[in-house]
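User: I'm preparing a small set of examples for a lab meeting where we compare how different chains pack in three dimensions. I only have the primary sequence for this one, and I'd like the structure in token form so I can line it up with the others. Please keep the answer compact; I'll paste it straight into my notes.
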Amino acid sequence: MQTGCECRPSIQHLSHVILDMLQFFDMDAPSLTPGSDVEFTERVQYMFHAPPLVGGNQDQYADGGGPALLPNQNRGPHYAARTAQGIGTENGEHRMGHLSCLQRTSRAADGTPIHIRMDGPGFDAMDVPGGAKVPELQFTIFVPSADFFRTLRTSQASLDLQDKVRRQPERRRPRALPHRDPTPELPRPPAPTPVLPAHRARLTAAA
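Assistant: Understood. Below is the structure token output for the 207-residue chain.
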């Protein structure tokens, strides 16, 4: 009988994401001011948990707006449902963080992650129409099965929680990352470097 890692095969998912920096900062042109919805504390709540883990810098845009590394907190499988209803958020706002949603199904009962993921920045012309170099996110994840990865993707969107809250009287859909990003209009010039360096364009963490 075989023992060890050879008895526990996994599936590797490879992802190559082109980052539209103008869309990321809600800007129609590089010369315009970023929108308030993309301040550092807002992005932290979209990517991690709500309320924000840290307050960030006084200038919410310069030097990334705050620290590059944030604590990887496991809030449990029911946290997204709570914040979607505005429980524990600032001013009772309905929110769902990216990690809050993933953690509905990404960990074992004792809190151990069931997957292993790695992220890295990129700046190249791979798959870019016209061949322009743009900021990119290189991402890979090891999961025990294709079905588990499908479940993670479903949890990431958590459309069931959004619809549940929206059906309640006088409730709007919780603020969360869109479950499908529109195709960026490329090639497009990257945002000016004083706004945010390309290598810190995204806040990511292990779920």
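A couple of notes for your slides: The CA atoms of residues 107 and 113 lie 4 Å apart. The helical segments are 21-24, 40-47, 79-84, 98-102, 146-157, 159-166.

User: Perfect, thanks.
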